[in-house]
Amino acid sequence: MVVVLELDGDxxxxxxxxxxxxxxxxxxxxxxPVQHDGAVENSAAERPNPNINNFSAALGxxxxxxxxxxxxxxxxxxxxxxxxxxxxxxxxxxxxxxxQQTLHCENEIxxxxxxxxxxxxxxxxxxxxxxxxxxxDMVSDCRRCGRIICRNCAHKPPSASxxxxxxxxxCSKCLATPLxxxxxxxxxxxxxxxxxxxxxxxxxxLNVADTNYFRIWxxxxxxxxxxxxxxxxxxxxNEGVKCWRGEKCVAxxxxxxxxxxxxxxxxxxxxxxxxxxxxxxxxxxxxxxxAGYWQQEIEGIGGVVKKKIRxxxxxxxxxxxxxxxxxxKDNVLGRESRGEGRxxxxxxxxxxxxxxxxxxxGEVPGVAA
Length: 369
Fold this sequence. Notes:
It is a single chain. The chain is α+β, with helices and mostly antiparallel strands. It is about 25% helix and about 15% strand. Strand 3 (about 35) and strand 4 (about 40) form a beta hairpin.
């Protein structure tokens, strides 16, 4: 779509007329003539417009700018229009259409009728239980799952005092692996120190997960042989804390685990989402239920029969435990909290750069030094 305007009139300056010069749908802003002692001097030749380039011409093309607007919210579109007068003039001619085509929240309901929460799950429900319209001025993707949400649908971020508890320790292989090979979001790492933008499902239960992870290290320190106990084999073999990346760990390995199941279902909630094709069934054992080494029936308290199955799953490598953390001289995950070592964020699910990473790749984008 090309907009062509034919303007009539002389070359005299008229402050109330539309700017002249239309090239491929983009309006060219000309400098205002300077008046000296009653004589009008045209300084267009002396002062050319430096903002006329390929990008400004693209903003004047409706098919290009309408595709670009679908990835911008109202705040970003407003900031783009305030870059210079040339950009503003090119965007102003499509203002009404661009506002309607900006980025929408996934929970936004296009109709004006009221939505019943029981019949539709696309309503924007706040923490208080009220239904509110989705905002258009601040819309972005969730840092963890990538869903497009607005500020009304975003989960309330945790307090700044809990930032040190978001760190998860990685194994030695994941620490030595270069960032481009470790994560596909290595150029966009964790920025939770400056802003936390998560949807409601991803933001629920963060404090509980952080507390449970820290209790693992507390239990290891309390029952360690360094405190004069008889020792329980903690940290030996496969009994240590695993790498937080789990099956995506660089040095992941398959181990046998025992899973307690109820009589009605043979898998827990975590395994119910996993398809049968992805399960590692041993050779000779199909999907049918049969008693044997891989599935056993156990009689519990009160005569309740429970089932326990064995399964081979991929787990991460055991992480390293420092001596000063065992002796209590340093806090748990102190190196990760101070930024000395690379870690994994338990909130956004992205890598947290360490000291060596910042020396190689510079400072973290979007985070103040």
